[in-house]
Amino acid sequence: MTNPSRRSAFKTLLAGAASLPAAAVLPAQAAARNAAPAVPACPPAPRWGRGIEGQRKADLGDGTYMNPIISGDHPDPTILKDGKDYYMTFSSFLSYPGIVIWHSTDLVNWTPVGPALKKPLGTIWALDLCKHNGRYFIYIPAAPDGNGWSIYAIWADRIEGPWSDPIDLKISGCIDPGHVVGEDGKRYLFVNGIRRVRLTDDGLAADGPVEPAYQPWRYPEDWVVENFAPEGPKLLRHGAYFYIVTAVGGTAGPVTGHMVIAARSKSIHGPWEHCPHNPIVRTTSNKEPWWSRGHASLVEGPGGDWWMIYHAYENGFRTLGRQTLLEPIEWTADGWFRAKGGDLSKPLPKPRGGKAGPNGFALSDDFSKDRFGVQWTFHDPAPNEMARVRFANGGLEIKGKGTSPADATPLTCGVGDRAYEAEITLDLLGAAEGGILLFYNPKAYVGLGFTPDTVKTYEYSEELPWARRPQAISSVRVRLTNDDNVVTFHYSFDGGKTWQLHGTRMEVSGIHHNVFGGFLSLKVGVYAAGGGTVRLRDFRYRALASS
Predict the structure, then answer these.
(1) What is the pTM of this model?
(2) 3-state secondary structure 74-135
(3) What pLDDT sits at residue 23?
(4) How far apart are CA 255 and CA 388, in angstroms?
(5) For residue 13, which of 300, 414, 469, 527 sits 20 to 30 Å off, Cα-Cα?
(6) In which element (H, E) is residue 153 found?
(7) Cβ neighbours of residue 240 under 8 Å, at least 6 residues apart?
């Protein structure tokens, strides 16, 4: 809160400036008019397609696409080509239900199939989705109950599920699994390090120790990176070689750190030869549209061309998390591959031979159907968190928990647009507090809260007591507008007929991993605290044109 005396002095200064004679102001104005135009802080928004609710989409409808192919927080992509179909999933961290699988037939347009994991395992990091002998597997690094990391597996005979309960493979201290079948017919996981462990034939247990597999290529010492951190090994067999595609340089930190490197070997057991073109992809300037590019997989397109899928932060919008990018590659005469997309600032030709399917889904929700996992997730829920929820009385009712957004386990909804409006009706039943948020984690959020007698303001991850406003409330419709990281709130007590502008605007561009850790994104959230229940009704989402 601003000190009152300093606030008064600032007002006096403003008043003095306003009272200056016109002659004292006009020369400065004239100089400003004649000065060179200011350089914008961020590059202008590229031209994206617009889909459902105005959400941006990659497909431009003219045979080209503009990255990202899946916007918003979709990090560490793992992709499976299954005949004419492609399936992809991502790290889901502390969101449950989690591990949402997406489907495409052209590598550009994607829609969710559904969540594969409902049982909380703690934070979920980079996965691997694969298919072996007709069965689908997802290998999951997780640390339940805050204990050490281990690799878990879930499996299904259909991609839609049902998926098995998680099975602990007892591969401790490892993350970022990458599955491959060796020339010996045996199954292996490569993990961070870069290390290797053999699996049993059913893929559900370790069949040997974790052992060193490959010493990754090192970048020059004067490059500005976060740290070495070899991780995310993804493997494929192409021609006479096994190829291993790895991330080094650190996941976040400086924008020039994260990068993609490659190596190859005629045996899964090595020796591995560094690619002479390393790094395959790397951000080299903070002026590029995509920062910290890395964690790649290779995949063959529908028409036989080849592509690389990886993640990156959007310039100026780390709040959206790491987004999924698609870049063309070419195989060279010497058996290596090169990236062909440049800095991804311009539209690229779509993959050949694919059939465009639907893209994305509407976020607006009348709560008549269960959209948990695909759209709504609890942040870091307890094992019995879903017991708080029921669909009833024309909405979604959530029993109160805790005393504020920090301990209420908010319900969150990921977004992928630079600018948007989100609007919802909250009915307060009993001694409940409900509200709308932009939520990163319990230490990083902003929002408005409503009790039966008070409007509350949350900024800097805490309530501002001086901003409380007395108000009798049984139901409120509240709107959050995020315009390029500047947040405005409106609320209405008559169902949206008349609106009140909240007196505080908030700037949230600094709420991201480099400040708060956790590799997360800033999501729209709704919370229910206190001793009563909050009923959610008529959630509406609309993307806005961004600068």
Answers:
(1) 0.90
(2) CCCCEEEEECCEEEEECCCECEECEEEEEEECCCCCCEEEEEEECCCCCCECCCEEEEECCE
(3) 31
(4) 41
(5) 469
(6) strand 150-156
(7) 266, 335
